[in-house]
Design brief:
Helix content: 25-40%
Shape: globular
Number of domains: 1
CATH class: Alpha Beta
Order of helices and strands: EEEHEHEHEHEHEHEHHEHHEE
Number of helices: 10
Distance between the termini: 27 Å
């Protein structure tokens, strides 16, 4: 098993990267430094994480002329947020991320969601009743503006995040620059087998966010199942003398899925990279696959009429009303 996947552009994308979602200010700089120091060559960022300047601070210490790493040694991803879908806003949003990260180009730039929110400076533009202000900008129009970022050399490749198969095909049908990646929630409780198969058929690589089940998600309910404490996983980990997290990350890599576990703990950051020195048996791969219960953990929910419902399900481009 190689430590990278080759994208349709020919770029080599390391199969394990450092995720930076939910990494608090004051912690993410040290996390990126620790990751680069122990061998990571893939950092996943997004404007909406509000920590790209701090990530940039770490990159400036380690990457570039006369530093420990050359720019071309590190694969950096960022994402276009929902309030920047208007074609006029796309280039400025990308340039802001580049400025915050201290880079002249991104290896990969993703459309964070297919859903457009109202333009403006607020990440989450809301009405008085707390509901999100949506925009009807179509993701195909946003994509056309992202393609010009490739033409101008601001990004090496573009891709998608949180798109279903139908929406992905919709983009591909009109694209000049095809999407190289679809980054989606994926873990043994949400194995994404159908979407993974579809992505393979159209030469799109899948990146798994929250690959360990995001046990620290702020909205977790007390009775939500927890992947890393699942006794079935513990039994597999014991057989391989590995941590439960390492077994799950190995499962992703062995399926040909790139994963971006988030951690700010140096020892865990290092452990998460140590998944290329063992293989899971076919039986254990199937056993992990059998954990699947199509449980999405990373869909913002709200209370309506005493029930928890998906917040953006009314948006015309909400991706999760389709089966995959």
């Amino acid at each position: 098993m190689s430590d990278f996947l080759t994208l349709s552009t020919g770029q080599r994308m390391p199969v394990v990267g450092l995720g930076t979602w939910k990494s608090a200010p004051g912690q993410v700089k040290q996390a990126v430094l620790a990751a680069l120091d122990c061998g990571y060559r893939h950092i996943d960022c997004a404007a909406a994480y509000s920590n790209e300047q701090e990530v940039g601070g770490a990159l400036s210490l380690m990457v570039g002329s006369g530093k420990a790493l050359r720019r071309e040694d590190v694969f950096v991803t960022s994402k276009l947020w929902n309030t920047k879908h208007d074609p006029e806003d796309v280039e400025e949003a990308c340039r802001t991320s580049l400025a915050h990260l201290g880079l002249s180009y991104l290896d990969l730039y993703l459309m964070h969601w297919p859903m457009a929110f109202q333009r403006g400076k607020e990440l989450m533009p809301r009405r008085d009743d707390g509901s999100i202000c949506y925009s009807d900008t179509h993701y195909r129009d946003t994509w056309a503006a992202m393609e010009s970022l490739v033409d101008k050399g601001l990004v090496k490749a573009i891709g998608l995040s949180n798109f279903n198969a139908r929406q992905m095909d919709d983009i591909i049908s009109t694209a000049r620059h095809a999407p190289v990646v679809n980054q989606v929630e994926c873990h043994p409780y949400l194995s994404q087998a159908d979407l993974l198969s579809h992505c393979r058929s159209v030469a799109v690589c899948v990146t798994a966010y929250s690959p360990l089940g995001s046990g620290d998600r702020p909205w977790a309910a007390p009775d939500d199942r927890s992947l890393l404490t699942d006794p079935r996983l513990a039994a597999i980990a014991q057989r391989y003398q590995k941590t439960p997290a390492q077994v799950v990350l190995r499962w992703h890599v062995q399926r040909g899925v790139v994963c971006i576990p988030k951690s700010v703990t140096p020892s865990r950051i290092q452990q998460n990279l140590q998944v290329l020195d063992f293989s899971l048996s076919e039986d254990d791969m199937k056993l992990l696959e059998s954990f699947n219960c199509n449980q999405r953990l990373i869909v913002p929910a709200v209370e309506r009429d005493g029930k928890r419902v998906w917040r953006d399900a009314e948006h015309p481009h909400f991706p999760f009303n389709d089966p995959y």
